[in-house]
Amino acid sequence: MNQQARIDAQTTPGATRALAKFVAEARTASFDDKTFHRARYHALDTIGALIAGAVQETTETTVKAVRATGAGGEVPVPGRGERFDMTTAALIAGTAGHGLEVDDGYRAGSVHPGTVIVPAALAAAWQTRCDGDTFLRSIIAGYEVMCRISAAIHPRARWRGFHNTPATGVFGATAVWCVMKGLDEDAVESAFGAACSTASGLFTFLHGGEVKRLHAGFGARSGLLSGVLAENGLQGPPGCLEVRDGFFHAYAGGDTGEFDYSTLDILSVGTGSPHAMTECYIKPYACCRHIHGPIDALTLLMREHDFTADKIEAMHVGTYRVAAAHDLRTWSSFTGSQMSIPFVLASAARFGRADIDVFDAAHRADPETAALAERVSVDVDPECEADYPRTRPARVTVTLKDGRRVDHRVDQPYGSPGNPLDEAALEAKFMTLATLVFDEAEARSIAASLWAVHDTADMRPLVESLARAS
Question: What protein family does this chain belong to (predicted)?
Answer without folding.
Answer: Belongs to the PrpD family.
